[in-house]
Amino acid sequence: MSSYVFPIQTAFIIFVIASMFLLVPWLIYGYRKDGFFSWSRFAVSFSFIFFLLAAYCLVILPVPTTRNNCTGPAAHAFYNLSPFMFVKDIMRETPVIWSQPSTWINMLKGRAFLQVMFNVLLLMPLGVYIRYFWQKRAFWKHALVAGFGLSLFFEITQLTGLYGYYSCPYRLFDVDDLMLNTSGAVIGFFAAPLLLALFPSRASIQAKSEQIAEQNHVYPVPQLLALLIDGIVVVLIANFLSIFTLSNDIQDVINTSTAMVIVLLFVPWVRSGVTPGSVVLRFRYVDRQSGMPKPRALFKRFIAIYAPWLLLTIIQLASKYAYPNYQNDALDSYLIWISLGVSTLYFLVYIVLLIHVVVVLFSGGKRSFYFDEVSQIRASRK
């Protein structure tokens, strides 16, 4: 069992790292496709990624400690092309006497039988995913072809020693593995409805997407993602401006302020209420009453976003310059208290903003962000 734990742990670590980079792009793609975030589709998509990583790691790990691994008898046994050798292995390792049920149990516990079960189970999830994506039983051939193709990829990986990285293959190319892996994918395809009953169907997701499109409602999560993208664009513009200006704290504030004016005020003003982030998420900002973007409302929204950032920046700079230098005891005693007060204020502002964001996100779309409330702006998909 321990031989399976290490590959799965490795796959999980890789999966977590990959998810950090894939999460936001996937959320953007999912929203653009469906008009809302389907967490069931999220679970299916990311579990599929983890399955592929886990299956691959189980096949290739552990690897030899050296690239020059052509030693021992195994170095000359590269493949097995005789089908159903696993039956002979089971009979040889755990002989079965059909009149004695106790020998059946010993067979089920034997290494050879467990290896067969592992090969069947390895690609069963692939069949489940294929059934989810194609739905109908008539597409079982997709599971057959995909299972065989993925299993063949694994076997070639083993036969070539990770595509020539190792001098010799360190695992056996086995035709039985091809048969058992492919069978597992087909079994998973036909058994899939038992598991997929727990998840919304693709048809129900599409129906909900059409319903939300008719309601013209944009939930807080895509609005927050759009603001995040706007923030990234602001940073890029500010860094570009810094190439042509002096490098100091005041100039950095000016560069960032200029970038925020461009992204959060000028662009939506001339582009009918859209920012770089809202373009990506396919919505725009309009006045709640008229349904059209108004310069006055856009200006209020900009000020509502800019003011907290400016306050936090001033607090941060004050904390930087109020830090005691331990050269003048009388002055340092005041600076310590000033630094403590400034740091506390900085922390409180962040906490208030964080609580506000969490409350809005978990309100189910019933609450708006403070800058939209102040400016009487709403997000519209039309």
From TrEMBL:
What name goes with this protein? VanZ family protein
Q: Where is the VanZ-like domain?
A: 48-195
What Pfam family is a match, any one? VanZ
Q: Does the keyword Transmembrane apply?
A: yes
Task: Write out the transmembrane intervals.
Answer: 6-30, 42-63, 112-132, 144-166, 178-199, 224-246, 258-281, 302-323, 335-362
- All copies of the RDD domain together span 224-369
Q: Which membrane topology term applies here?
A: Multi-pass membrane protein
The UniProt entry, under PANTHER family, shows: INTEGRAL MEMBRANE PROTEIN, MEMBRANE PROTEIN-RELATED
InterPro entries given in the database record: RDD, Teicoplanin_resist-assoc, VanZ-like
Signal peptide range: none
Q: Which UniProt keywords apply?
A: Membrane, Transmembrane, Transmembrane helix
Q: Does the keyword RNA-binding apply?
A: no
Per UniProt, subcellular location reads as: Membrane
